């Protein structure tokens, strides 16, 4: 019953977003929402690691960056046609899968500290690679490229990103509710116990890391296609931090939370940088978010969506208790 | 020969700077089981406050002392308000200290502006000595001496004083030390403050060494410090100085001979260590 209501609610929002470009014709709003969808995909992939498996990665930007650079290089070096686009997607999937498998194999058997540090270092390595491999990446300046005809229109691209986000959401919902996803959550809750129940924890963690890496790579593809430009900033810590802020503020362990978080951060970023003309302090909006983030980790470790869900549950609980009393009285 | 000697001196000096950063990190980890991702932020704060105080007062030593005091104060605040609520929860610690790192480096830009500042060595440390064909830059020798001094001082305190005994015992068995009537929380705070002060000292010494300081340098050096801590072994103090010198030397030699691989070399070293000896070269626990 509740689940149906929830699905209806999500469906309604999805339809509203689908109709929006036909009703409200604002170019900047469309572009902003496209960014939200792309980062929502990225944040959801991050949430699969952080929220569902309990792995802290500081190098998620490397998968994002690989996707962004792969599409850029394919479109620039070859021709901006649909077959090459599909090929680039395939290459991204393969590359990110292999990389996340290797990184996971090396480090996931270690303590969470090591994974965080190592992913940070690996992402640093890719940043250096992108800066130094000038013949392919044009160094720090990056390069512009053309995209296939199909993706040129802003409205079409908006719809494509929206559909991609909905697909990722549905897929990940299915994934996290599958028996495999349950095992991942068990690992997050109590790793030794999951292990003693006979699950090979490391393999499950690697699966989560591969799925998450591939989705992050796909988000990277859409990101650089929306800008038609790519430079080394896609590999920087800032991208990982964005995902982290979105997931933590939106709600860890709830895919909706990642989407909400992406919306909040992107809109806040947009508006606060506009406010920078009013007062320079708004240019340092990261401080505000950093503080909110620290407070969220301390007091609302479940983020906005998780806290709301808890409140709802508690309310229901007290109502039920009252009913019980009435019956017994 | 001159090239070799210069590179070695350069590498040693960088290694000592990384050591100052990594030492605090490893001490805090060894005693408190906290990995402080904000350590690079403390490093950058030390650099900025020290350089600023040096520029206003005109005395390099007041600058250094100012940086150390900044480190102590920031360390105290961090321990009290950020670290204390999340003891024992690794995931939360990692997340929260990273958030602090973000806030610290953005606050730097608010206080001193987003542009990089230039820093110069005081006149008595400028210039160089010439021995035969070899040029020895004074400031680098100074950094190496300070690094050694800090290492020996900390080593002496750890091995030969009562407080060092308490700290070492605390690393081994927290509950036992508490049961013997020692306020381990105070010790924790003290260690954290000293770790932060060492990072700040490293920061202020870096200024004249590289010529400029900028807000992002905290993260850059923090990555090097993490590599050092992993290679040397988490919580091992002698391990951290050896690994820091190793990383410093390999950095300076690689930068000269194979510049494109400079950062990759350290990373590969770390990967090899992690595969064959995950607890690090001198580590006790895995």
UniProtKB/TrEMBL annotation, chain A:
Its main location: membrane. Pfam families: BPD_transp_2 (PF02653). GO terms for molecular function: branched-chain amino acid transmembrane transporter activity. It is found in: Cell membrane. Keywords: Cell membrane, Membrane, Transmembrane, Transmembrane helix. It is a multi-pass membrane protein. It comes from the Bacteria. The chain crosses the membrane at residues 7-24, 30-49, 61-78, 84-106, 113-130, 157-176, 197-223, 243-265, 285-305. GO terms for cellular component: plasma membrane. This is Amino acid/amide ABC transporter membrane protein 2, HAAT family.
Automatic annotation (TrEMBL), chain B:
InterPro entries: ABC_transp_permease, BCAA_transport_permease. Its main location: membrane. GO terms for biological process: amino acid transport. GO terms for molecular function: transmembrane transporter activity. The keyword Protein biosynthesis does not apply. GO terms for cellular component: plasma membrane. The chain crosses the membrane at residues 7-32, 52-74, 94-114, 134-158, 187-209, 221-249, 256-276. It is a multi-pass membrane protein. Keywords: Amino-acid transport, Cell membrane, Membrane, Transmembrane, Transmembrane helix, Transport. It is found in: Cell membrane. Belongs to the binding-protein-dependent transport system permease family. LivHM subfamily. This is Amino acid/amide ABC transporter membrane protein 1, HAAT family. It comes from Mesobacillus persicus.
């Amino acid at each position: 019953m509740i689940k149906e209501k929830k699905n209806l609610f999500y469906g309604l929002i999805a339809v509203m977003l689908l109709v929006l470009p036909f009703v409200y014709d604002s170019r900047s709003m469309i572009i902003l929402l496209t960014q939200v969808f792309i980062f929502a995909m990225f944040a959801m992939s991050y949430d699969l690691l952080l929220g569902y498996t309990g792995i802290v990665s500081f190098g998620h930007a490397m998968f994002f960056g690989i996707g962004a650079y792969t599409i850029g290089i394919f479109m620039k070096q070859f021709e901006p046609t649909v077959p090459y686009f599909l090929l680039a997607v395939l290459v991204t999937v393969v590359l990110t899968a292999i990389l996340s498998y290797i990184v996971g194999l090396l480090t996931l058997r270690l303590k969470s500290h090591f994974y965080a540090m190592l992913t940070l270092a690996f992402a640093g390595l890719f940043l250096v690679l992108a800066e130094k491999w000038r013949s392919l990446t044009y160094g720090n300046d990056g390069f512009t490229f053309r995209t296939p005809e199909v993706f040129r229109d802003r409205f079409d691209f908006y719809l494509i990103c929206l559909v991609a986000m909905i697909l990722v959401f549905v897929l990940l919902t299915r994934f996290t509710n599958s028996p495999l996803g349950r095992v991942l959550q068990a690992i997050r809750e109590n790793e030794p116990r999951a292990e003693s129940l006979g699950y090979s924890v490391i393999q499950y963690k690697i699966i989560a890391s591969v799925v998450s890496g591939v989705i992050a790579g796909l988000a990277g593809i859409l990101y650089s296609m929306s800008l038609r430009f790519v430079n080394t900033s896609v590999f920087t810590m800032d991208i990982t931090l964005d995902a982290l802020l979105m997931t933590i503020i939106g709600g860890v362990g709830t895919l909706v939370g990642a989407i909400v978080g992406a919306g909040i951060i992107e809109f806040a970023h947009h508006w606060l940088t506009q406010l920078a003309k009013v007062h320079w302090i708004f240019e340092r909006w990261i401080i505000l978010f950093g503080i909110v983030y620290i407070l969220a980790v301390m007091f609302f470790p479940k983020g906005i969506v998780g806290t709301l869900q808890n409140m709802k549950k508690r309310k229901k609980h007290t109502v039920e208790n009252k009913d019980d009393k009435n019956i017994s009285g | 020969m001159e090239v070799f000697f210069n590179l070695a001196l350069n590498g040693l000096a960088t290694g000592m700077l990384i050591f100052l950063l990594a030492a605090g990190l490893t001490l805090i980890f060894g005693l408190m089981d906290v990995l402080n991702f904000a350590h690079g932020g403390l490093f950058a704060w030390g650099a900025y406050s020290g350089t600023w105080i040096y520029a206003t007062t005109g005395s390099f030593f007041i600058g250094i002392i100012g940086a150390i005091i900044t480190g102590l104060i920031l360390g105290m605040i961090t321990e009290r308000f950020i670290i204390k609520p999340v003891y024992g929860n690794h995931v939360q610690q990692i997340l929260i200290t990273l958030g602090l790192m973000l806030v610290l480096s953005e606050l730097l830009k608010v206080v001193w502006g987003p542009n990089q500042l230039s820093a110069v060595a005081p006149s008595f440390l400028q210039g160089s000595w010439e021995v035969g064909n070899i040029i020895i830059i004074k400031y680098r020798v100074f950094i190496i001496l300070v690094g050694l001094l800090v290492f020996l001082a900390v080593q002496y305190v750890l091995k030969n004083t009562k407080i060092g005994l308490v700290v070492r015992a605390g690393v081994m068995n927290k509950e036992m030390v508490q049961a013997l009537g020692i306020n381990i929380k105070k010790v924790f705070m003290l260690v954290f403050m000293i770790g932060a002060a060492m990072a700040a000292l490293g920061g202020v010494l870096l200024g004249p060494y590289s010529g400029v300081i900028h807000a992002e340098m905290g993260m850059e050096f923090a990555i090097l410090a993490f590599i050092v801590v992993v290679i040397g072994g988490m919580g091992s103090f002698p391990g951290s100085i050896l690994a820091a010198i190793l990383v410093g030397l390999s950095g300076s030699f690689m930068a000269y001979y194979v510049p494109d691989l400079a950062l990759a070399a350290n990373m590969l070293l770390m990967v090899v260590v992690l595969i064959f000896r995950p607890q690090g070269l001198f580590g006790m626990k895995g």
